[in-house]
Design a protein that fits this description.
The protein is α/β, with parallel strands linked by helices. The chain has a single domain, classed as Rossmann fold (3-Layer(aba) Sandwich). Helix content is 28%, strand content 29%. It has six helices and nine strands. The strands form two sheets. Strands 5-4-3-6-7-8-9 form a seven-stranded mixed β-sheet. The protein has a two-stranded antiparallel sheet with strand order 1-2. Helix 1 packs antiparallel against helix 2 and helix 2 packs across helix 4. The chain binds S-adenosyl-L-homocysteine (SAH). The site of S-adenosyl-L-homocysteine (SAH) has 24 residues, from strand 2, helix 4 and strand 4.
Length: 207
C-alpha cells in the first residue's frame, strides 16, 4: 500500500515515531476508508480533514503521537473518547486487546462503526454518550485516549484508569491545547507535556 508507506516514511518516522507496532498499524489501516468519499483522495495528506458535522479526523502524525504515548500493549483494554471517523479507533484496535470508544454524535458513531465492520475489526465496542463520564460499566482501563480538547482534566477519567495506566488528553482553550500524558500511580498522578496541538472541543454534556 504505497500511500500508507509514504505517509509513514515522510510524516511519521522523520518526526520521531519509533514504536514498530505503531508504525505497523499505520501500514495496515486504510485511512481512506475512514473519511467521507469526497475527501478520500486527500486521506494520506499531512493535515487534518473535515469529516462533517464540524468535526475533523486528526493529522496522521497526531494520531501516531497519541498512539505511541499510551505505550500500547497487546493485552491492554483501552477507552477512546471521541470516535469521530473511527480511524484512531482502528489503529488502536490493531495495537491492543479491546477498544471501547465513545462518541456524542450518533451519525458519526454509526459511520465509524460501519467503517470498522467493513474492515473486519471485531475487538471494538461503540458507545453513544458524553465522554466526560467515561464508560464506567467497562472500567478500569489500562489506557485512555481523548481525541477532543478539554478545558480541564475530567477526574472521572482518572478514576476509570488502572494503577500504572496512562491517559493522553489535549488540555486548554479553543485555539490551542497542550497534549498531556498522565500516568496514574499508587500515590497519585504524574503529568508530562507532549507539545502543542489543536483539537475540536470536548463538548460538555450541558451544552
Ligand atoms: N479520533 C477522531 C477525532 C475526531 S474529532 C478521528 O481521528 O477521527 C473529536 C470527536 O470527539 C468528534 O467526533 C466529536 O463529536 C467527539 N466529541 C466531542 N465532545 C465529546 C464528548 N463530550 N463525548 C464524546 N465525544 C465527543
Amino acid at each position: 500500500m504505497p500511500e500508507c508507506k509514504r505517509m509513514i516514511n515522510e510524516q511519521l518516522i522523520p518526526r520521531g515515531i519509533k514504536n514498530p507496532r505503531v508504525l505497523d498499524a499505520f501500514a495496515h489501516v486504510k485511512r481512506h476508508r475512514f473519511v467521507p468519499e469526497h475527501v478520500a483522495r486527500y486521506a494520506y495528506g499531512d493535515f487534518p480533514l473535515d469529516i462533517g458535522l464540524d468535526q475533523t479526523i486528526s493529522q496522521p502524525y497526531i494520531v501516531a503521537l497519541m498512539s505511541e504515548a499510551i505505550d500500547p500493549k497487546p493485552t491492554d483494554r483501552v477507552l477512546e473518547v471521541g470516535t469521530g471517523s473511527g480511524y484512531q479507533t482502528a489503529i488502536l484496535a490493531h495495537l491492543v486487546q479491546h477498544v471501547h470508544t465513545i462518541e456524542r454524535i450518533e451519525s458519526l458513531m454509526h459511520r465509524a462503526q460501519r467503517a470498522l465492520d467493513h474492515e473486519g475489526y471485531t475487538n471494538v465496542t461503540f458507545h453513544l454518550g458524553d465522554g466526560h463520564q467515561g464508560v464506567s460499566e467497562h472500567a478500569p482501563y489500562d489506557k485512555i485516549l481523548v481525541t477532543a480538547a478539554a478545558k480541564r482534566l475530567p477526574t472521572t477519567l482518572i478514576d476509570q484508569l488502572n494503577i500504572g495506566g496512562i491517559l493522553v488528553i489535549p488540555l486548554g482553550g479553543i485555539f490551542f491545547q497542550d497534549l498531556v500524558k498522565i500516568t496514574k500511580t499508587s500515590k497519585g498522578t504524574k503529568k508530562e507535556s507532549l507539545g502543542g496541538v489543536r483539537f475540536v472541543p470536548l463538548v460538555a454534556s450541558t451544552s
